Amino acid sequence: MTLSRTATRAEHCVIACAEAWRDAGEILAAPMGPVPSVGARLARRTFSPDLLLTDGEALLVGPDGTPEGWLPYRQHLALVTTGRRHVMMGASQIDRFGNQNISCIGDWAAPARQLLGVRGAPVNTLNNPTSYWIPRHSKRVFVERVDMVCGVGYDRAAEHPGTARFHHIPRVVSDLGVFDFATPDHSMRLASLHPGVTVEQVRAATGFELTVPDGVPFTREPTPAELRLIREVIDPGNSRDREVRT
C-alpha cells in the first residue's frame, strides 16, 4: 500500500516537537504526551542519534523500547538539576513570558478547578531546558497572566538569576504553530505556522498580544523517510491523530 505524501496536522506537530531536540547531543529527552513522544523517538532515529530516552522508571531505552542502560532515580535527578535534560511538558495555562500553570484555575486559596498540582515544574524550568506541547490552542490556555506559576517564565527567572542557571524555554508547540521567545524582552513570538493555519487564526486563539514578525514561515514538511518512520515504525496505531483534532 502506498502511503499518502501529504502530512496531517498531527504529523506537522510531531515534526515541530522533534525539532526541539535537533542536534541535542547526549542529553535526556523527557517528552510528555503522545505527539512529543513520537517526536523524540523520531529525532533519535534521524538527526539526534545521541539522544537518551527513558522508560519513565529505571531504564534508558532505544527508540523501539529496547533497554540500553540503567537510569536509577538518583541519576535521573542528577541529569535534571544540571541542565542535561530537555523536558517537553503540557500546560493548562501559559502566558506571554512562558510562565506555566498546571495546578489550579482561579484563586489558589479557593480554586474553581483543581488540576495536577505544581509537580516538578519549578525544578524542571529552573534547572534544565523546558519546552511545552499544547494540543488545543485557545484563549483559555494562552492567557495574559497565569492563575498560578508552576513552570517559571523569563520574567520571573530574571528576578532571581542566581536560581536559573539553566533556565531556557526553547519552544512552545501547539496545534496551530510553533512559538519561541526570541524577542528583546523574551516575550512569546510566533515562529512558524502549521500549513493551513493563518496568523489571524493564531491571534484570535491567543489571550495576549503575540510578537508576529513579517513573513512567518510554515512549519517544515516531514521528509518521505520521516513520514514512513512516523506511520509505519514509531506510531502505527496513530495515537498522534487522536491527540490533534483539526
Describe this structure in words.
The structure is a single chain. The mean pLDDT is 92. The protein has a single domain (9-238), classed as 3-Layer(aba) Sandwich (Glutaconate Coenzyme A-transferase), CATH 3.40.1080.10. Helix 1 (9-19) packs across helix 2 (34-45). The strands form four sheets. The protein has a six-stranded mixed beta sheet with strand order 1-5-10-11-12-13, with helices on both faces. A three-stranded antiparallel beta sheet has the order 2-3-4. 44% of the residues are buried. 27% of the residues lie in helices and 17% in strands. It has helices spanning 9-19, 34-45, 73-80, 121-127, 154-159, 199-204, 224-234, 239-243; strands spanning 28-31, 53-54, 59-61, 67-70, 85-89, 93-94, 100-101, 104-105, 113-114, 130-134, 172-174, 177-180, 189-193. The chain is globular, with a radius of gyration of 18 Å. The protein starts with 8 loop residues before the first helix and ends with a helix. The protein is of the alpha/beta class and 246 residues long. Keywords: Transferase. Belongs to the 3-oxoacid CoA-transferase subunit B family. This is CoA-transferase. GO terms for molecular function: CoA-transferase activity.
